[in-house]
Every structure is written in C-alpha cells, then in structure tokens.
C-alpha cells in the first residue's frame, strides 16, 4: 500500500492535505509535550467512517518528510472514534526498512511505543472544544488488511 505522509515522526506540526489545491497545508501545532511518535498520514483511495481517508501511522528507521509517499505494509489497526464517527488508524512499517521492515504484526512492536502512540492519539485534541479521539481496541495485521479493503470499497 502507498502511504501519503502529512506529519513527520518527532514533529508537533500537524499538516492536512488539501485535495482541491493538491498541496499540504499547516493545520495546527500539537500541544507540548506531544510529538508524533511515527510518521502520520493517510491511504489514498480509501474512506473512513468519519468521511476522511483512512489514517495510517508508518514506522521507519529513516527520516520521512511531510509530503512524501512511501510503500508500507500494514501490521495492525487501532479501532478508534472521534467526534465525526469511526476513525480507525492503520499501523504500518515502511517496506524494506532496516529497523522495522521485518515486522509482520503489531504484537512485535515494543509496548512502550504502542503506549506512546495511544497516549498521543487520545490527547492530541485536548483543548479543542467538542473534539476527541477514543481508542476502542487494537487489531492484528489481518484485521488491518481487512480494514483497508473495507475502506477501499466505500
């Protein structure tokens, strides 16, 4: 699958892709001390329950810039919802990455990294009136692939 990156790992700058203008725009800054633990973006050609493309977090041992597209393999899914509805998030690894590329399932990811990601997701909208994200569960690689397939048909 191809992942379009909107936010670099380690960044507090949240970008959004504007389809009309075909460009990446700065949306907001995450509150301190939050930073994005992995690259964040979306999978083109998909539609999530909240009306946006399916979100994806890509783990990579190298720097990936906002605006890049990368080949990635899904290893898990975070079942979540926000103020707009279901908003599941795919966890993926960059294909052939020397650090994470051999992982085939979310169960192989260090739990501390998963907890950091969950914390960031559940708190990145703190202070934004009427906005929230709630994690409902975690699924494996097969569930992630099924979620992508379902989102591709919508």
Structure overview:
By secondary structure, the chain is of the alpha+beta class. It has a single domain, classed as Inorganic pyrophosphatase (Inorganic Pyrophosphatase, Alpha-Beta Complex), CATH 3.90.80.10. Helix content is 17%, strand content 38%. A five-stranded mixed barrel has the order 1-4-5-8-6. A hairpin with a 4-residue loop joins strand 2 and strand 3. The model has no long low-confidence stretch (mean pLDDT 92).
Give the mean pLDDT: 92
Global Rg: 14 Å
Number of strands: 9
Q: What gap, in angstroms, lies between the N and C termini?
A: 17 Å
- Counting DSSP H or I runs of 4 or more residues, the number of helices is 2
CATH class: Alpha Beta
CATH topology: Inorganic Pyrophosphatase
Largest sheet: 5 strands, mixed, barrel
Strand order of the largest sheet: 1-4-5-8-6
- Helix fraction, binned, reads 10-25%
Task: Identify low-pLDDT runs.
Answer: none
Could you state the order of secondary-structure elements as H and E?
Answer: EEEEEEEEHEH
- CATH superfamily, by name, is Inorganic pyrophosphatase
Strand content: 35-45%
Q: Mind telling me which CATH architecture this is?
A: Alpha-Beta Complex
The rough form would be described as globular
List the helices and strands and how they pair.
Elements: E1 2-7, E2 13-18, E3 23-29, E4 39-43, E5 54-59, E6 69-82, E7 85-86, E8 89-94, H1 111-123, E9 133-139, H2 141-153
């Amino acid at each position: 699958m191809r992942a379009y990156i909107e936010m670099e790992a380690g960044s507090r700058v949240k970008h959004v892709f504007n389809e009309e203008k075909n460009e990446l725009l700065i949306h907001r800054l995450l509150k301190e001390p939050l930073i994005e633990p992995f690259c964040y973006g979306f999978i083109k050609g998909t539609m999530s329950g909240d009306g946006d493309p399916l979100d994806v977090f890509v783990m990579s041992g190298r720097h990936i810039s906002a605006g890049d597209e990368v080949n990635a393999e899904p290893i898990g899914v975070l079942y979540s919802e926000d103020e707009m509805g279901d908003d599941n998030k795919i966890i993926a690894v960059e294909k052939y990455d020397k650090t994470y590329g051999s992982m085939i399932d979310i169960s192989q990811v260090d739990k501390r990294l998963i907890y950091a990601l969950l914390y960031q997701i559940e708190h990145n909208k703190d202070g934004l009136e009427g906005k929230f994200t709630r994690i409902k569960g975690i699924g494996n690689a097969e569930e992630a692939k099924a979620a992508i397939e379902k989102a591709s048909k919508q």
